[in-house]
Fold each of these.
Amino acid sequence: MLLQTHSLGLVWSSLFGLLWGSFFNVCIFRLPEEKSIVWNRSHCRSCSTPLKWFHNIPILSFILLRGKCAFCGHRISIQYPLIEAVTAALFAGTWLHYGWSLAWIFYTYFVSSLLVITVIDLRHMIIPDELSLTGILIGVLASFFVQHITWWESLLGAALGGGIFMAIAMGYEKFARQEGLGGGDIKLLAMIGAWLGYQSILVVIVISSALGSVVGLSLMLLRKKTLKTAIPFGPFLALGAIVYLFWGEWIGRFLLPAVD
Ligand SMILES: [Zn+2]
């Protein structure tokens, strides 16, 4: 019986994730390009033919159409099913963590913002304020409603996250005479702090810097990129935040055994 409710919860939360994922695909194309929401998903991006409802089923349509538009054969970006699948996984993971609760609703918003920010930052090297600043506000608001974090842990998290990165950015600019961390990264870490609390900041910085170094060095070796080639840091921060959300307590104990 317990196993049954468990699998049902996973199935339903994943289905919610699939539906929201296809909406996020629309947001991702729309936000930086200022395109209307309606145009994107209900028309082919290449031939503009209106799509039928069965061309819009998350993941399934992509597989059945073998990744091509049913009318003109233009390739559909793998980004569509990928984002739907990742959103489903994030929603299910958040459900495993919080169950059906207000916290689940709030934190699916948080992980969804992180996903959309990641893709926009990868594609355009920007993090829209609509996502990061709104995320800070909603994160602080959420802390009043959920039991996992207090409002002062949230506020301190936002201040600490933004503050540390602001200090690093100013120091780096002074010595290297070029921009290292963008303003978007500063606001993103403030947002993460608002949702995960001040306790998360150090762990998230360590995880994302480690991931960023590994990926940055690999890219340099593979494509002979120089040290100056900018890779967006937002995706690593987002990944660090998700790792902390799901495995933070365990990592905290492992990294900082003295604290507590
Ligand atoms: Zn087409």
Amino acid sequence: MTRAEHIRALLEDYARQRALNEEDQQRRFREAVEKAPRIAELRQESAELALSAMRSIISGHTEAERRAVAENMKARGLAINAEMRALVRDAGFPEDQLEPRYRCPVCRDTGYVGEAPARFCECFEARLRRRQYEDGTMAGADRQNFERFDASLIPEADGQREQLIKHRRLCETYADQYPDFPYPNLLLTGGGGLGKTFLLNCVYERVISRGYSAIRITAFRMFEAMRQQHVGNDESYQGFAALIEVPLLLIDDLGTEPMMRNITVEYLFTLLNERAANRRHTVIATNLSPVELKERYGERVASRVLDRSACATLKFTGKDLRKV
Ligand SMILES: [Zn+2]
């Protein structure tokens, strides 16, 4: 799906949500009226009041007469609201029983905030990012979470089990304390099949389930976003910008993406540098050793990835778990 298609689908989802909100509000109104029938009368009177305010404006009364009518109506309106609130409270309902309730109070489930030209609400942006990066290659990855970690499947030899249990604990602490873990970044490094991707997905699931916004992406797809950005494709420009701006970015399999001159290293540096400068958090899993990282990306990128002051490094060793 393109970004435009995701936006259209999301806007439909928001419209459905508003319809649900409306139904929910009406259901709560009926519930209240059942206990306190007077509420229905007051609602009716309030509607009529609004109607007669309209009539008064077009009736041709003098300015002073209109003002007197308006003031009477305002006072009556306030009295109606006060009586309704008291009835709701006395009937044992929560104070907002008759009010609309929103999934996102910031945008009132419209997806937009601000005056024209409005922009997307943060809740909308977060959903959009998730949709864009979760369709396709990441299918199935959401099955992976800390609860499914099974230490009995890991060979005990050479301390591999002990090591992975330690790494799991650190990753879980990182995810639970996010964004306040002592290090903003994690680097998971070691051979294939040692559990790096699994733990990266676990971190993602936990952080998302705590309500934070994050993007998980393979280096290959990240490279695609960079390449599209490089050739000036507007839609993907948004994709690359999202990678820079998301509060937590999790990059899997760094080192497996194609190496294109003027693209891979430059964009990767821009990405990591911008993120570090804005104190955003990044988790990277890679099969490359620190030496190989330097060889592949050069000193500038490697020093960002390996920055000891900002990054906790987890080294994975042992037997490929897919083969044991
Ligand atoms: Zn919102």
